[in-house]
Design a protein that fits this description.
With 292 residues, this protein is mainly α. The chain has one domain: Up-down Bundle (ABC transporter transmembrane region fold), CATH 1.20.1560. It is built from 11 helices and no strands. It has helices spanning 2-27, 33-36, 42-84, 88-95, 107-110, 128-177, 181-186, 189-207, 209-231, 233-240, 243-287.
Length: 292
């Protein structure tokens, strides 16, 4: 009988923990994007739209920069490949004096001594300097667009997020002031103060720069897939075969991070309550000389 009596509290504690976990999961609600920005006014929505456009431009710059850089590298490779395919012995016999020797290393410096012109030799038409200058100029333009769009994205989205979180704090504070006394019996003041700061800061991060980062990564992903299939669809299909594995891992990580964030916020709320009670009781303990 004594053993059964000892086991009963353990089973009740286990079922209580299981019920609390289920209640915590049911209380966690997924918020849509529309409801996430429901406190934004016209000005903040305007900032949000401009920040979204800047995020799209920022996300497109990376794939375009990789394409232009690839063309720049190809210009050197094509030039070397064209030179390696030439028969320098026959060229010297046909167009050059007997004391001139042509190789792949001295071709462009020695070709002026031979009777080789642009009309009878098409390779001389390939001006690598003008070609590389064009690619470098495009890369500079992309870098400038990347810099400006990144700056505009961060500034506008952070301003919009800061204004929205200020509105949320005001509405939340007014809502707390209208609560009954029973509400403050079940919710400690320390927990409320922590909720005012940590929870709203999480909302600020979600509707601020991180929102732009999500759009940027999504646009970069779509742009890379599109460019990959345009440049080489066979290799893209092989690489794209691993996309489901990456997607499944991303979904699992997203759920883990979401659950851990909820646990973190609740733990911070409880810790804030305990900390405020301890700090507020220090004066009472000192007045009765109860410190150790």
């Amino acid at each position: 009988m004594s053993q059964e009596g000892e086991k009963k509290p353990e089973t009740t504690n286990f079922w209580q923990q299981l019920r609390t976990k289920k209640q915590d999961k049911t209380q966690t609600e997924v918020v849509s994007i529309r409801s996430l920005f429901r406190y934004a006014n016209t000005t903040e929505l305007f900032y949000l739209v401009l920040g979204t456009i800047a995020s799209i431009a920022f996300g497109v710059c990376l794939p375009l920069g990789l394409v232009i850089f690839g063309n720049l590298v190809d210009s050197f490779i094509d030039r070397a490949a064209n030179l390696c395919s030439l028969n320098f012995t026959s060229l010297v016999q046909q167009y050059c004096p007997s004391n001139v020797t042509l190789t792949s290393t001295n071709f462009y410096t020695t070709v002026s001594l031979c009777n080789i012109t642009k009309s009878n030799f098409a390779l001389i038409h390939y001006d690598i300097k003008s070609h590389t200058n064009k690619q470098v100029f495009i890369l500079i333009i992309i870098a400038c667009v990347n810099l400006i769009s990144g700056y505009v994205r961060v500034i506008l989205l952070e301003i919009s997020a800061e204004r929205q979180t200020r509105t949320i704090r005001q509405i939340l504070f007014q809502s707390v002031l209208k609560k009954d006394v029973v509400f403050f019996d079940t919710h400690k003041t320390g927990e409320l103060s922590v909720r005012f700061t940590n929870d709203i800061n999480k909302i600020h991060d979600g509707i601020g720069n991180k929102f732009g980062s999500v759009i940027e990564v999504l646009i970069t992903f779509i742009s890379c897939i599109t460019i990959g299939f345009i440049k080489g669809w066979k290799l893209s299909l092989v690489i794209f075969a691993f996309a489901p594995i990456v997607f499944i891992i991303a979904v699992i990580l997203f759920r883990i991070v979401t659950e851990m964030t909820v646990i973190e916020l609740k733990a911070y709320g409880k810790a804030g309550t305990v900390a405020e009670e301890v700090i507020s009781s220090i004066r009472t303990v000192l007045s009765y000389n109860g410190q150790e």
